[in-house]
């Protein structure tokens, strides 16, 4: 597989021969699977292709030129920052160009106004380190410290620190996007000048178009530059300690402290999160799945299963931990005050504080998403919603109930309702449901469960983040909106009439269902005959 | 647990044996592209500068040069879907196999990345595609002169000077290695004099041959196996209880790769393998080695890969893989935790006058010099790039002297420093220790 010679020559003229290749060995390195996020599922097997060529631009101008060449020669292309987001960020059609953005790694920081300007190749942990050197911090999203800042912010962008910092779209400031036809779109203050300090610009706020709720998986252009808001942090250095794999940041205890509380009930757990938010204290408030604790304790996969084998439905049902991060943003006294308030809240609710290490293994600088693959080898999050605190827990429980029918192939987890936490000082609750399996087994059940969750959400009238390109658009579109699929397709047609940019997204899951015989039993919605474009 | 909540997965035999790439198809197929192999471990991430730890993928930006790309390529090779081509050979061999990827991956997962890469090279040789021409020349040199440079065998002990006492028989055997014997006599001399200064009698091998590092590293497993067998037998014949090396690559060969090739545990070798660093640190702690003469310099230390993240002892393993990829019996994974990280720092901090500064990337996160494991021979441009990249870090911390504990590192850094034209002294730690002993 390769792209047409004339197009290849034009691309080579843009970046030079060292930064474009159609060599089979080079292209093989960009295969989506066999491992990784969502890998081993039907979607990955049916929908992903090895690129026809790979190109590494250095500048926004390079990207514009590349996209224009693609439009001229009808070469479909996909933007690719780190490749971590699994099959949905890889090539979907034959003879496609993969635009690897890692060389767009420019970085500037404005210490006075607390924002950083990053290219698509900049990942989170260096940004966080540079921010912390200057008394600031950002959220490293659940995608992990290795995620591209831009890709994460236009798709996800939250973590337990969202309790204090808030939702990701608020941190997107001036942004540059190369539209699917190569035209440059500048958002926020960049629309009227060269200073990206502000997110709002003239005309409608197109950040909504950029990310929607959870992003469009690169089907509406390529974000090449973004200014990201930094937030004030505490001033003391967090010192890295230990040798891998046992590394952590040592916390200055008077300015930063994690405390775990065992709550007497689920109601007390939710109430605690609500009251902590109401008191406007803490930097993070979260409840993680019990099996994450087993991952943290285990030295190997086999030990994980030994530890996990000791749990049962009762221990899961009675696991009501609330993990709180206190941050002395302004002073030691402020943190002491927060801790006193926290103790009062927890005492009233009958919570018991558990011994907690004076260190941070995950969330401040290192978000450990890679550990998700330890126990089974295959993983994805099937939904993540932002709801009220009380509704968010119901969300996870309904997923756990549905999951029983699909276990196996899914990992036995005794009804664990997943990850749950407070956002925006308790104004919102976040729930994420994660599934694990072994890709070497029969994964039909994984594919069915995924689509079945969309049906469950429709039936129960639950909100869900996995709309748009994440689920069959003709399944969810008519039920949410009630015609958001038509609008989404109109937007796509408007900006990318040739469907050059990451086809057939946002119809990719529809195409997958159409092309996979094993999905027939679960397809009970109407859809037109879908012709993958271009 | 309920019995009906899981599949009854058939168990498959598997072994940590690099002579068969199929032993690592599970490991290669579970790479998740988190690029923990590429980035400095995030807890230690020093900032925007010096954020990577993979020399190959820093040298060439295409994903295929990172371990995450190579795992996909290895899978395709194992499945017979990718043919050997010059580009594929470059991807496989333009890599110092420095182990950064292995420890990076194993921070979170139980995947054998280093062994997969070694097995891929063995497969390349078995398929008649590998190694690179420069490696074949090394093989010819070793066959002819028992050293990898093709220098006359009779010159091997030319480094010995009259003031060095070598015992005819001793518990300690100093295995000098090709580099120190022929290219870096100053390292061999310093090591021998340190042993003398400690009052530790040592002997040399009656007829020392190459350790076979390059041959093993490029996948010439049969040739490397023969050298391993020959060298181990030769040491056993001397009755030595401890083999000391001053070369990091040699240390790894004796401690890890000989047992690996011979399907035995490091502890069953019949003698102990030590690097000079371990020996000197222990002697300093005991008071047998006094570092009293001041060495006035601002210096930094480079962790050579083969005495750090690659040096956990070897234990052979074979067993079965079953449900969810679990293995039985359990494997004690080599995660690079047993490297010689503290010893050099202890020593350097003991030397009076030394102003010791750390570089941003240290220990298991160190950026390889790029010379080892067949890279300098076949891809000198990568070795040069890697060393120069590391030297930027040396300059960043304002060090006047760069210290390492391997002749390969020393030579590569010294050449790079010369090429960049910037003043920097590159020393082996043995030279520094000796300077402090003698003044």
In what order do the strands lie side by side in the largest sheet of chain A? 17-14-16-15-20-21-19
Alpha-carbon distance between the two ends of chain A: 17 Å
> Can you tell me the number of structural domains of chain B?
1
The largest interface is: A-B, 77 and 68 residues
Average pLDDT of chain A: 94
In short:
With 534 residues, chain A is of the alpha+beta class.
Description:
The complex is a heterodimer of chains A (534) and B (439). Chain A has a 7-stranded antiparallel sheet with strand order 17-14-16-15-20-21-19. Chain A has a 5-stranded antiparallel sheet with strand order 5-6-10-8-9. In chain A, strands 1-2-4-3 form a 4-stranded mixed sheet, covered by helices on one side. Chain A has 4 domains: 5-100, Uridine Diphospho-n-acetylenolpyruvylglucosamine Reductase, domain 2, CATH 3.30.43; 107-232, Uridine Diphospho-n-acetylenolpyruvylglucosamine Reductase, domain 3 (2-Layer Sandwich), CATH 3.30.465.10; 242-363 and 378-437, Alpha-Beta Plaits; 468-522, no CATH class. Chain A has helices spanning 5-15, 24-28, 42-47, 60-73, 124-133, 149-153, 162-165, 207-211, 266-278, 290-297, 301-308, 313-317, 332-348, 389-404, 444-460, 473-476, 484-495, 508-515; strands spanning 20-21, 53-55, 77-80, 97-100, 107-110, 115-119, 136-137, 172-178, 184-187, 222-229, 231-232, 239-241, 248-250, 256-262, 284-287, 321-327, 352-354, 359-360, 378-387, 419-423, 428-437. The two termini of chain A are 17 Å apart. With 534 residues, chain A is an alpha+beta fold. Chain A is 31% helix and 19% strand. Chain B is an alpha/beta fold and 439 residues long. Chain B has one domain. Chain B contains 18 helices and 11 strands. In chain B, the strands form 3 sheets. A 4-stranded parallel sheet of chain B has the order 3-2-4-5. A 4-stranded parallel sheet of chain B has the order 9-6-10-11, with helices on both faces. In chain B, strand 7 and strand 8 form a beta hairpin. In chain B, helix 16 (380-396) packs across helix 17 (407-420). The longest helix of chain B is centred in the middle third of the chain and has 18 residues, at 221-238. Chain B starts with 11 loop residues before the first strand and ends with a helix.
């Amino acid at each position: 597989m390769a792209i047409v010679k004339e197009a290849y020559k034009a691309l080579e003229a843009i970046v030079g021969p060292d930064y474009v290749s159609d060599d089979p060995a080079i292209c093989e390195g960009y295969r989506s699977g066999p491992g990784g996020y969502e890998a081993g599922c039907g979607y990955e097997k049916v929908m992903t292709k090895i690129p026809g060529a790979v190109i590494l631009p250095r500048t926004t101008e390079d990207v514009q030129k590349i996209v224009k060449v693609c439009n001229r020669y009808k070469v479909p292309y996909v933007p690719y920052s780190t490749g971590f987001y699994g099959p949905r960020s890889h090539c979907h059609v034959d003879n496609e160009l993969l635009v690897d953005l890692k060389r767009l790694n420019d970085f500037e920081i404005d210490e006075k106004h607390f924002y950083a300007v990053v290219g698509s190749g900049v990942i989170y942990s260096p940004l966080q380190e540079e921010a912390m050197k200057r008394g600031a911090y950002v959220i490293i999203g659940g995608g992990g410290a290795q995620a591209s800042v831009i890709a994460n912010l236009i798709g996800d962008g939250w973590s337990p620190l969202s309790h204090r910092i808030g939702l990701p779209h608020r941190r997107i400031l001036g942004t540059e996007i190369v539209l699917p036809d190569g035209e440059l779109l500048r958002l926020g203050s960049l629309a009227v000048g060269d200073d990206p300090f502000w997110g709002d610009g003239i005309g409608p706020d197109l950040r909504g178009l950029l990310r929607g709720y959870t992003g469009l998986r690169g089907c509406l252009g390529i974000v090449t530059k973004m200014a990201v808001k930094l937030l004030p942090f505490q001033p003391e250095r967090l010192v890295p300690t230990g040798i891998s794999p046992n590394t952590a940041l040592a916390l200055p205890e008077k300015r930063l402290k994690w405390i775990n509380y065992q709550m007497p009930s689920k109601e007390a757990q939710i109430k605690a999160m609500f009251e902590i938010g109401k008191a406007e204290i803490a930097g993070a408030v979260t409840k993680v799945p019990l099996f994450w604790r087993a991952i943290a304790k285990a030295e190997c996969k086999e030990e994980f299963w030994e530890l996990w084998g000791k749990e049962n439905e009762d221990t899961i049902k009675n696991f009501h931990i609330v993990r709180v991060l206190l941050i002395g943003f302004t002073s030691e006294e402020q943190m002491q005050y927060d801790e006193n308030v926290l103790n009062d809240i927890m005492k009233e609710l009958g919570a018991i504080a558990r011994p907690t290490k004076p260190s941070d293994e995950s969330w401040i600088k290192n978000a450990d998403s890679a550990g998700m693959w330890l126990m089974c080898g295959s993983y994805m999050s099937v939904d993540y919603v932002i709801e009220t605190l009380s509704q968010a827990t119901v969300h996870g429980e309904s997923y756990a109930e549905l999951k029983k029918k699909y276990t196996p192939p899914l990992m036995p987890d005794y009804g664990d309702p997943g990850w749950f936490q407070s956002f925006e000082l308790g104004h919102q609750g976040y729930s994420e449901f994660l599934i694990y399996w072994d890709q070497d087994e029969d994964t039909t059940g994984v594919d069915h469960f995924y689509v079945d969750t969309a049906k469950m959400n429709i039936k129960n009238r639950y909100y869900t983040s996995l709309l748009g390109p994440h689920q069959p658009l003709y399944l969810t579109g008519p039920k949410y909106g009630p015609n958001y699929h038509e609008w989404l397709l109109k937007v796509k047609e408007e900006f990318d009439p040739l469907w050059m940019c990451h086809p057939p997204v946002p119809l990719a899951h529809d195409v997958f269902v159409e092309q996979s015989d094993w999905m027939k039993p679960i397809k009970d919605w109407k859809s037109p005959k879908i012709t993958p474009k271009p | 647990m309920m019995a009906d909540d899981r599949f009854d997965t058939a168990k498959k035999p598997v072994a940590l044996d690099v002579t068969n790439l199929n032993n690592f198809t599970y490991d290669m197929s579970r790479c998740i592209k988190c690029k923990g192999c590429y980035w400095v471990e995030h807890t230690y991430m020093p900032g925007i500068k010096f954020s990577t730890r993979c020399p190959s993928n820093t040298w060439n930006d295409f994903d295929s040069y990172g371990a995450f790309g190579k795992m996909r390529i290895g899978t395709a090779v194992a499945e017979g879907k990718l043919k050997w081509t010059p580009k594929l050979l470059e991807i496989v061999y333009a890599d110092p196999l420095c182990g950064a990827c292995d420890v990076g991956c194993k921070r979170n997962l139980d995947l054998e990345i280093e062994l997969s890469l070694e097995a891929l090279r063995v497969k390349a040789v078995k398929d008649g595609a590998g190694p690179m021409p420069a490696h074949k020349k090394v093989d010819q040199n070793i066959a002819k002169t028992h050293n990898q440079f093709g220098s006359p065998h009779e010159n091997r002990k030319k480094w010995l000077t009259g003031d060095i006492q070598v015992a005819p028989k001793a518990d300690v055997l100093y295995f000098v290695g090709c580099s120190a014997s022929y290219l870096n006599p100053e390292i061999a001399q310093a090591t021998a004099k340190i042993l003398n200064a400690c009052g530790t009698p040592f002997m040399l091998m009656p007829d020392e041959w190459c350790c076979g590092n390059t041959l093993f590293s490029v996948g010439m497993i049969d040739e490397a196996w023969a050298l391993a067998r020959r060298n181990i037998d030769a040491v056993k014949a001397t009755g030595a209880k401890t083999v000391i090396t001053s070369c990091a690559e040699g240390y790894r060969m004796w401690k890890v790769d000989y047992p690996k090739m011979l399907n035995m545990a490091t502890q069953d070798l019949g003698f102990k393998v030590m690097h000079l660093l371990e020996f000197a640190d222990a002697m300093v702690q005991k008071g047998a080695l006094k570092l009293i003469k001041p060495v006035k310099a601002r210096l930094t230390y480079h962790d050579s890969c083969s005495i750090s993240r690659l040096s956990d002892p070897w234990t052979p393993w074979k067993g079965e893989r079953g449900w969810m990829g679990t293995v039985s019996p359990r494997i004690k994974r080599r995660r690079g935790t047993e490297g010689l990280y503290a010893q050099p720092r202890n020593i350097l901090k003991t030397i009076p006058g030394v102003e010791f500064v750390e570089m941003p990337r240290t220990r298991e996160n160190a950026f390889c010099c790029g010379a080892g494991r067949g890279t300098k021979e076949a891809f000198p441009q990568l070795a040069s790039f890697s060393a120069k990249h590391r030297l930027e870090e040396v300059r960043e911390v304002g060090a006047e002297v760069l210290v390492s504990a391997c002749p390969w590192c020393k030579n590569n850094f010294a050449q790079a420093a010369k090429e960049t034209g910037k003043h920097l002294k590159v020393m082996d730690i043995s030279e520094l220790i000796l300077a402090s002993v003698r003044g």
